[in-house]
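Progress narrative, Year 2. Work on tRNA threonylcarbamoyladenosine biosynthesis protein TsaE from Qipengyuania citrea advanced from sequence curation to structure prediction during this period.
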Amino acid sequence: MKIALPDLAAMEAFGQQISAKLAPGDVVALSGTLGTGKTTLARAIIAALGHEGEVPSPTYTIIETYDGLPVPLVHADFYRLEDPAEAAELGLDDYREGAALLAEWPDHAGGFAHEPNCLAIALEKVGEGREAVVTPGTSWQSRWP
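Result:
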């Protein structure tokens, strides 16, 4: 399914739509080239869940956690990983326990599309806006519009 995201307001509304369906154990796998809006969408999801304040990009820290939300979140940016095994070395499985994962550059961590609780979103530039190609895993199919 393709969703047009012509501006920031549309990206924020899309983030709200995702956050309303998000549950512990879910993965939102955000892929796309540099500058397509992966971090912007992750921030919209985090804000829609009620986080107030700054949401730093985890480009350098790799993992940021948000425990005080209705759905605890792990926001990870795997861009800097050189081998998928590094995700395990970071303790990713421990972070994911009881939390949802927002994963930027999921392919650098070995990917998550094989997981039934994965909502894969590929962002692409379209003119001045973006387009999201959404592929819901089996557990998302009943929740996704």
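Residues 2-115 form a domain with the Rossmann fold fold (CATH 3.40.50.300). The two ends are 10 Å apart (CA to CA).
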